[in-house]
Amino acid sequence: MSFSWARPYEPKHPVMRWLDERLPLPRLVYGAIGGGYPVPRNLNYWWNFGVLAGIFLTIQIVTGIVLAMHYFATGDGAFNSVNGLIMRDVNAGWLLRYAHMNGASFFFIVTYIHIFRGLYYGSYKAPRELVWMLGLVIYLLMMATAFMGYVLPWGQMSYWGAQVITGFFSAFPLIGEPLRVWLLGGYAPDQAALTRFFSLHYLLPFVIAGVVILHIWALHIPGSGNPTGVDVKSEKDTLPFHPFYTAKDGWFAAFVLLLYAVVTFYAPNYLGHPDNYIPANPLATPAHIVPEWYFWPFYAILRSFTIDFILPAKLWGVLAMFGSILLLFFLPWLDKSPVRSGSYRPVFKRFFWLLVADIVILGYVGGAPLNWWRTALGQIASAYYFVHFLVILPLVSAFETPDPLPSSISSSVLHGEEAEAAPAGQTKPRRGSVATAG
Amino acid sequence: MRFIMGFIGSVFAGILLISMIGNLATYFGNKPAPLAAEEFHKEPRELHLSSDGPLGRFDKAQLQRGFQVYSEVCSACHSLHLVSFRELKGLGYNDAEIKKIASDWKTQVPSINPDTGEASTRKALPSDLFPAPFANEVAARAANNNAVPPDLSLMTKAREGGAAYVYSLLTGYRNPDTYRDEHGKRLPADAKPPQGLHFNPYFANLNIAMPPPLTTEGQVTYASGNPRPTVDQMAKDVAAFLVWTAEPNLENRHAAGIAVTIFLLVATILGYLAYQQIWHDAKRVVRVTGPLDPKNQAKSKSAKAKQGVAG
Asked: Cβ contacts (< 8 Å) between A386 and chain B: which residues?
């Protein structure tokens, strides 16, 4: 598709030839994830997580469709259908349910790694801005889907999570409260909310699948990025996706599924909250309302605004929380550095790891009960999050002197494994050896 | 555009810093005293059950004893509304025994008189769920000093600490007047339980509405005759039973987990070997034979020398 040396599809079997002449579906697949897609030869394991996200989306859709066959979307029946019927009476229902519950967490784990890969290696930069933005759309859809899915078992955290999250909308002046009531179909989460959440929770994964196709399509125009960030220059720089990357993705997928199986079978409730095994009770508020772990950083940002400064604190919190994701759409234009890969950007690299630490701190603060020092820590960490993307990143990209880039992917590969991601003529300092630039 | 974004970022950061200063000022200006509920609350005691761990299986004799404790003590107030009698097969009872347990159950199942159509009750069948001790929430509150005894079906999954929490709570009742914590500290007067509540350091706010349910040795006479039904033993057994009610498929899950894990382990290894095999021919000599290959070392040395890099 993208490079002149991409192998064209040549059907071997007469049936495939017959099909290809009438509907070139095999040709499409071959060009997208087969031997017809040339991929930079130097991808490291951080490039495996996009395929993994696709695998977990598939797992979620398959388990979810079967679970929906046994689920009652009613205020009286939802909790018992999940915890009674599905967990006890449906054949392997416990497996479907735990696989779906933990599948959501693993979907987010691999997606977060995929996003951070993009942040470090500058995957959002030209010519891949649309790939990045479509990815963010997928992420937003994932968040909506995960939130609504968490409401469906209708436990205490389901109910109060729905109450809190839909409460965000009431922060907006004038239209806020009517908007919230309209979205919920009532003044508090109830039957109307549960039924529409179920409907949308079933719909959105297919919308995600659609946007995934656009994401991959947009990726295949310039082709995949690589750890050096240097453009592909010749056939020597690439390998066909199949069999090289199918083999690499294949074994690594089996390995990640192994981790997923260990959690699903031996600690299925570790990533959940015990309160969700208590049926929803509108009259009893849980001591600590917390969302699922993958929302903790955003929850921390929301809770960090505690002062009514011109606008009410709640509105600041909601604006900041939405803003924290929306600003990522502007990233291709905030970071103007022509060098894509963080490996060749000494200043950027330091700030990147600071950002990772910052988001881990935000996650911790968002998941733990509030006290005075956690609130203060969350406020510093939230402030850093915005300053990082909106102030530091543009400044760094303007003033930083990047390290010299390798002349091509193949030349970077040929000067030795540990030097692969390092600037040309410079190996990473290793124990016992000091590299000095000449 | 970058200027506007930078301005927005600074506004958010500025407000966060103002918020933080305000918070810290409030905190240090008026340091709150530590709450007794936080100070005296204890983490659950350790409890080891045969169902723990990846190879854990239920101890059926223990589950039967726990079931006996539930039926003779807990079931007076607590329902088990997700569990049906037929599921008791998992405890090792046979069909006839289950039929008898169901029909002898002290609460009957709401029904309709087949002749008159009036509301009535009938004996439970194996296919029935355990009937609740109270007809509704109002009746439960009326009988329990305005507290609702929670359903126990999922109790060990619905509390932090699980079975260990249930065990600790059941054996954790103390006299609030003489209680000292591990530092020898006495309970302050305002933290003592109000009328109708009972002090228990394992309960989140220290004061629980449930009176101590297990009080004397031999409160339940175990059908099996052993072990001695001490309060500690009964608490352990009923905690084990509640692990089963919350997770009746636990043994299936553990067994399937072993099979899946082994399958994926083999798949990972085979996949890795296939990957090595495929990439071996990938002209990517450096990575495949490794940087320690003398041929490559010589190559990289000369490359470095050419670029003027020492090492």
From this structure: 8-9, 12-13, 16
CA-nearest residue to A257 within chain B is B264
**How is residue A179 written in tokens?**
């908007």
- The residues, ordered by sequence, that sit 6+ positions from B41 with a Cβ below 8 Å of its Cβ are B201, B202, B203, B204, B206
On whether both B291 and B232 belong to a single domain, the answer is no
Whether A292 is a known active-site residue: answer yes
CB of B2 within 8 Å of a chain A CB? The answer is yes
Residue A275 has pLDDT above 90, yes or no: yes
Q: ipTM of the assembly?
A: 0.89
Catalytic residue selected from A201, A242, A248, A273: A248
Nearest CA in chain B to A324: B9
What is the signed CA dihedral for B218, B219, B225, B231, rounded to 10 degrees?
-70
Asked if B267's CB is within 8 angstroms of A277's CB, the reply is no
Give the model's confidence band at A408: pLDDT under 50 very low, under 70 low, under 90 confident, else very high: confident
Within 10 angstroms of residue A67's Cβ, the number of other Cβ atoms is 21
Q: Classify residue B214: in a domain, yes or no.
A: yes
B91 lies in some domain: no
Instruction: Identify the active-site residue in A220, A236, A349, A388.
Output: A220
Same domain (yes/no): B53, B187? yes
Q: Is A248 a catalytic residue?
A: yes
Q: Which fold has domain A292-407?
A: Helix Hairpins (1.10.287)
Domain shared by B242 and B278, yes or no: no
CA atoms within 13 A on the CB side of A25: 6
Q: Which pTM does this prediction carry? A: 0.91
Query: Which tokens belong to B260?
Result: 């899946």
Binned at pLDDT 50, 70 and 90, residue B262 comes out as very high
Q: Match 């049926």 to its residue by tokens.
A: A279
Q: A415 contacts in B (CB within 8 Å)?
A: 300, 303-304
Minimal C-alpha gap between A109 and chain B (Å): 19
Kindly report, residue by residue over A312-346, the tens digit of the pLDDT: 999 999 999 999 999 999 999 999 999 999 999 99
- The CATH class that applies to domain A41-289 reads mainly alpha
Distance from the Cα of residue A235 to its chain's centroid: 32
Same domain, B234 and B286: no
The CATH number covering residue B179 comes to 1.10.760.10
Q: CA end-to-end span of chain A, whole Å?
A: 41
Contact residues on chain A for B284, CB-CB shorter than 8 A: 41, 413
